[in-house]
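Suppose a classmate hands you a notebook page containing two proteins, each written out with its sequence and a corresponding row of structure tokens. How would you begin to make sense of it? This section walks through that situation. The first entry is reproduced here exactly as it would appear on such a page.
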Amino acid sequence: MSESFARKMWPNQDPLGRRIYTGRRADTLGTTVVGVVEETRMFSMTGENPMVLYVPHAQEGDPGDGQAMVLRTTGDPAALIAAVRSLVQEIDPRVAIARPGTMEEVVKTALAEPLRLRFFLMLFAGLALVLGAVGVYGVVSYSVARRRGEFGIRMALGAAPGSVLGHVIARGMLPVVIGVGAGIAGSIALSRLLGRFLYEIAPTDPASLASAGVALLAAGVLAALVPAWRAGKVSPVEALRAE
């Protein structure tokens, strides 16, 4: 059986020698587990593996709906397709080979849909990032414009331009930090739904979550930086005259 099958059936226990009942017609006495093998992608390249059980062909009473034959070669795999067809026809003319192809073609076909989904997800995520940065810039710019007189008075009373700039950035980053925290919490909560679309990466991968959070925070800082720089350049005389 596969590693995931063994973990689900007997967590933290040795599965060797145990018996399971598969419900097949030929399995009336149960099947004894004689080994655990590494995970193999049987039906899908993404998501979790189903519970896979390997039974010797000689012990399989029901041949099933179809069989898969895999050959390894050091040459061009596509060049063997015609030879394999001829060999199978010589052994049994009633057997038909449905979908011959190389393993590279199988992998590409299996990953086609997840890759398309990833492209659109990246596109929408990029648009959301741009809209979020524009929104932060607009809110912070509006806040700076309304408080122009206040900043002028502060600087007239001795406030340094750097302190005004830091104050504006901190105020502008507050909703961004709250949004990033809420987004990470939401992604963790929805990790079970996202798991079947991912390949060789966990839905709660710390590096992915951290890089996404850093990217959003960086976009927020850049969006708030220009209005904050303008606030730090406010002339006290001009601000008081405008008031």
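The notebook's second entry, a different protein, reads as follows.
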Amino acid sequence: MANYLHTEGICLRRLDYSNTSQVAAFLTPDAGTLSVMAKGVTRAPKRGVRTGFDLLGRYELIYTPRPAGTLQNLTYRWLREDFRGLRRSLPGMLCGFYVAELALNFAAEGDPCPGLYARTLETLRRLDAGRRLGLNVLRLELGALAEHGTLPVFDRCSRCGGPLPDRGPVTFSPADGGVLCATCEGASGPGDVPPRGGTIPVRADFLPLLAALAAGKDVPDLDPRRTVALSTVLRFHIRYQLGKELRMWKYLQRRELTRSLRRIRRRLPQR
């Protein structure tokens, strides 16, 4: 008798296979990333329209398990949330696609991740409602790093544990796992090899904001410029942890660049 497993998952990726089937990857709380083969999922009913998985949709799933590293056989699926609000604007769609890519890179197959799943689902619901896209993406980046065990240290020096200044620039080092104080920053000699991954300067007054967001607290007065600056620090750290840049970054950065160009054009004198 077949052994059926029941779970829920967010569709992160889908690919057509033959004329009527699809291969899809789901983020699930109890199985990490779950890759399934759904036979006949795109077969059109009589006088109907072909259907398939909704990307980023939350599904209830029943599947028969197979050995690790192979596609699981999906038996039934029910769409519970489709997050149609993400399709109302291009920024919302881009942020949604970035959520999927982030989850695919920080979740592992067969490794339960209830925390990451809950954070991803909460982020999609907030984005679907049109709430502060950049801030919610920033929260998910912090949450993904926390669940991965690589969240940087923002409230003290990551090397010696000493206090940090309240103002001025400080150095962020992904190799050290956080921010460095002035003593540790200048401790390297002229012949020492620079840390792998490099460093970037960070404003010291940004650190309490990052620490508060990492602890799950609300920061209602965070403006879009600071959101972009804080996210830049985290993406520098994510690139070090993953060893690559995520594909969606250039599209998100292009959107911010377009906004900056519009602001500059408004300030130019009219001819």
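A careful reader of the second entry would note: Residues 61 and 77 are 5 Å apart (CA to CA).
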